[in-house]
Each structure stands twice: as C-alpha cells, then as structure tokens.
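Something for you to look into today, if you have time. What I am after is a single protein written out in full by you. I want to see for myself how the chain folds. Could you add the entry underneath, on a fresh line?
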Amino acid sequence: MLTHLDDQGRAHMVDVGDKAVTQRQAQAQADVRMQPATLDLLVAGELPKGDVLATARIAGIMAAKRTADLIPLCHPLPLSSVAIEIEAHPAQSLLRIISTVRCTGRTGVEMEALMAASVAALTIYDMAKAVDRAMVIEQVFVRNKTGGARGDFQHPLTPLDTSE
C-alpha cells in the first residue's frame, strides 16, 4: 500500500501524529567519480573555485535542513545533527560522501541523509566541472537507518574496497 495516497488515490502527507517519538538516524552515500588528476587537485585544495570539500560539507548540511522544502510530502524535522564525511579513494578515482543525520521524532531521516549526500556531490561537481566535465555522480543510496516501528536497516551493498 502506498502511504502517500488517500483512499481516492490523491497525494497527501502521511499523519505521523500517533507514531512514537524515537531516536532516528540515517546514513546515506554518494560517490563522485572523476579523473585522477582532478582528484589530486581537489584533495590538495588547488581547484580555482577554492576549498571544494569544505563548501560541499556546508552545502550538504544546508540541504538536509531544507529537505521538507524540496521533497513533496516530506515532513519538516527537528534535526539534532548532520555530519558530512568526504573520503578520497584514489584507487577508484572517486570521492565518497557519507552523510549521517540524527533527530528525535516521529518519522525517519532517510530523505534528509540522501539530500545531504546528493547536494554535497552536486556541489563537488559544480566546483570541479571547469577541470573535469566527465565526472559522474553514482551510488546514491541509504547505507543504514535506525529507529522507528519498522526497525533498523542495513543496505546489502558491500562498500568499495578501499585498499590502495
């Protein structure tokens, strides 16, 4: 059953008023694949547009806070924490973005985590596209989530081998 449709098939916001208030956490991931030279410049902080990684972290945090403004029918949530980690994986020529979002509330924070990772990836693309137009944003997904009536979730995808 699709919970965002009423009995007449019209879209509506799900009523979460009767759900228990619990601790919620979700992690999402996005990878940005690029040319090795681009990754080197980015990690060294030598791209013309400035500190790409710091800007991407801020953009991801801002995006998580604005999720309900951008995703129809998404509940506005009182986020207690948004963290953005960006890891370089030279062997795969990519940056991996992992967002972690927490709140105490009646509904999960998966969309906020996905929004944070996605916008951080888009920011990296925007700031590095002058030197690498062939970048690819890939592997955007919820890694895990905790809290709520449906219990915990761990995505079955195996993380990339990070050995160099």
